[in-house]
Amino acid sequence: MCIRDSNGDGAWRRRAELACGDRFELDVKGPKDAGELLPLWADTTLVPTLYEANASARERALEALALLELDENNETPGRLQHRRQRARVDLALSLGRIDEAQQRLAALVDAQPHVPLYARHLAWLASRRGQHDRALALARRVQALDPTARLALEMDAGRMRSALVSIEAMGEDHPHAARLRGLWCGLAWKFGMSEAPAACTDLPPGFAHELWSDAPSGLARIATDPCPELDAPATVLTVAPWGFETTPTEAMLRGALCRADAGETEALGQAREHVSRLLSATPDDPWISVLAAEVSQRSGDAPSANAYRVAAAQRWRDADPDLPAVATLRRILETAPAGPRAAEMAPPAVPTMAPLGEPYVETDSP
Questions:
Q1: Closest Cα partner for 92 from 114, 71, 62?
Q2: pTM of the shown model
Q3: Are 55 and 232 in contact (CB under 8 A)?
Q4: DSSP assignment, residue 30?
Q5: Angle at 122 between CA 24 and CA 79, to 5 degrees
Q6: In a domain, 263, yes or no
């Protein structure tokens, strides 16, 4: 609920009005203008745009990161300390400094193991980089306070039905319910559901809402474009909703395949380059394995295509069988002329849900 009061400082009244709008927004023009709200501005306004190949946004990211580092070096306590540290990590990630960001996150988790904001984020990054055991351990550590990573890993494995049951059991008043429903609806779209499930028909403005809309914008427009043409992003792995972190590079790959279909001789080689970058950034990602299989198949390398499909099927071994992406993959493997069968391979480590604890609301107190 927003309570509007005509009294008080004009700048703060303006910020209150923006916060009461359809989308959270800060009245900030740039890093130096943000002051103590820099972590929030970076998180809500700057980082979500850094997937674009935009020199101006990159310069602002470098400036914001320098200001955050200066605050820490000067031992300025300020406010929003947890968000400040998270902003430093996200800016580093968006600038392509993946190892630096992961090392900083790991140090934060070691120093403050019971801050869900850090453990959840490190679980996400570890899962993207193929470190599944580490991701699962971190998710379990904080699941009683914040079930986001735990349920996201379950959705990653294709267990969408059980994840939705857990989300709905939380109730609408749970502080993480809205975020988790948006995450679920985004992955429902990615798994190929042709129509918005009932849980996704009244989403608030945001990425998942855009994916299911008739006129998506921003990152959702890139994700839904079958033959996009865009400039190379600054980094393959971006800060984005769970499951969509490599969307710009995946889009470039799809664009290259479209050009190959149109007869462009160099396009298939470009698609192979994009696959190589994606596999390097996010090893063992089933979505990337499916793309790699398609590129290998088009390149005449059927054994590699089959191996990539088996790798994806192994990750989705316990997935809901009616998910379109899963059903298509299994159907192709059933008719594969040679190579190992997914059903004969050892199952991956798939999360099982433990009872969830009381809701946790993040604060910025030490």
A1: 62
A2: 0.83
A3: no
A4: S
A5: 45
A6: no
Q: Which domain holds residue 157?
A: 147-215
Using CA atoms, how far apart are residues 215 and 207, in angstroms rounded to an integer? 12
Q: Examine residue 349 and state whether it is found in any structural domain, yes or no.
A: no
Look at residue 11 and tell me if it is in a domain: no
First-to-last alpha carbon distance for the chain, in angstroms, is 27
Instruction: Evaluate the CA torsion angle 226, 231, 232, 236 in order and state its sign.
Output: negative
Distance CA 122, CA 245 (A): 14
Work out the average pLDDT over 255-271. Answer: 95
pLDDT for position 341 = 46
- How many structural domains are present in the chain? 1
Number of neighbours of residue 32 by Cβ within 10 angstroms: 12
Q: Which of 132, 198, 141 is nearest to 168 (CA)?
A: 198
In a domain, 171, yes or no: yes
For residues 285 and 327, is the Cβ–Cβ distance under 8 A? no
Rounded Cα gap, residues 151 and 155, in angstroms: 6
- Residue 164 CB-density burial (10 A; 0-12 exposed, 13-18 middle, 19+ buried): buried
**Residue 349 CA: distances (Å) to CA of 44, 51, 165, 262:** 33, 31, 21, 41
**How long is the chain?**
366
The mean of the pLDDT values for the chain is 85
- Which CA distances in Å does 337 have to 295, 301, 331? 18, 13, 12
Among 213, 157, 215, 217, residue whose Cα is nearest residue 187: 157
The DSSP element (H or E) to which 190 belongs, if any, is helix 177-190
Give the model confidence (pLDDT) of 201-237 as tens digits: 999 999 999 999 999 999 999 999 999 988 888 789 9
The CA distances from residue 329 to 95, 315, 325, in Å, are 34, 12, 6
| Residue with the two structure tokens 């996200």 | 90
Given this model, what pLDDT does residue 344 score?
A: 44
State the DSSP code for 92: H
DSSP 325: H
Helix, strand, coil % (nearest 5) of the chain? 60, 0, 40
